[in-house]
Amino acid sequence: MPTYEYACSNCGERFEKMMTISERQRQGAPRCPKCKSKKVEQVPAAFQAVTAKKT
User: If 40 and its partner were Cys, which of 6, 9, 21, 51 is the partner (CB 3.0–4.6 Å)?
Assistant: First the structure.
């Protein structure tokens, strides 16, 4: 399940939300957990790719 990172434009709080792709499409951006504002923007998140070693 993907984890999305958001930043609130109202209070500056940065938070993560884990949801399926279909949940994200249905619900849109979540509310800020600190101030409950809907003025949140998704921010680029770091990710890690695991690959097989070649021998």
Answer: 6
Q: Which residue has the tokens 């930043």?
A: 7
Q: What angle do CA 13, 23, 18 make, to 5 degrees?
A: 45
User: Which CATH number describes the domain made up of 3-43?
Assistant: 2.20.28
Strand partners of residue 4: 17
**Beta partners for 42?**
6
Domain segments of the chain as ranges: 3-43
* Residue indicated by tokens 């800020």: 32
pLDDT tens-digit map of 3-26: 899 999 999 999 999 989 899 889
Q: How far apart are CA 7 and CA 13, in angstroms?
A: 6
